[in-house]
Design brief:
InterPro entries: Impact, Impact_N, Impact_N_sf, Ribosomal_Su5_D2-typ_SF. This is YigZ family protein. By secondary structure, the chain is an alpha+beta fold. Helix content is 32%, strand content 37%. Strand 4 and strand 5 (68-72) form a beta hairpin.
Length: 204
Amino acid sequence: MTEKDTYKTITGASPEVLFKDRNSKFYGYAYPVTTEEEIRDHLESLKKKHHSARHWCYAWQLGMENPRFRANDDGEPNNSAGMPIYGQIQSFDVTNVLIVVVRYFGGVKLGVGGLINAYRNAAQMALEAADIEERTIDVKYELAFEYKDMNKVMRIIKEKNLNIADQKLELDCRITITVRKREAGMVAEIFEQLYGVEIKCVTH
């Protein structure tokens, strides 16, 4: 079995969506995120925007290979909000994403089943409204070599269609390349066999 080297995420914030049930309103939002700091910022701005709402429930997932996640019911009955929202993140198979559902209470209790349904629907609508794209999991390598070896390094980069993330071309040259994960070992081996070129992995 080949190792998975792609992941799905959303390209930008979704437009606001609204799910209603017995006068309660559930506003759904999806955001692309890569850090917990970004998550906090989005939550703070939504709390300002919806300052008179009753609950700001959310779930997020970060990372590609060993993802971390969190689900928060924000005062709703246990597992009636955060986990149904997180269930949609799993269902759409996306990561690096935050989904927030803001609830305005309409005076009628929905019960746990009603809440699960409402939060799940609002999260689903938010993800359906977002643009989802598949991306590759990349490994970053730094190549160090002398200027005289430039041509042979560039030839391999061109042949293998590698992406240059950063370069410093002086007497001592440094090029940072990103390689799709499943091709990383093969590419590293080619450069390791190249006389005068040092290669090291800078992220994984």
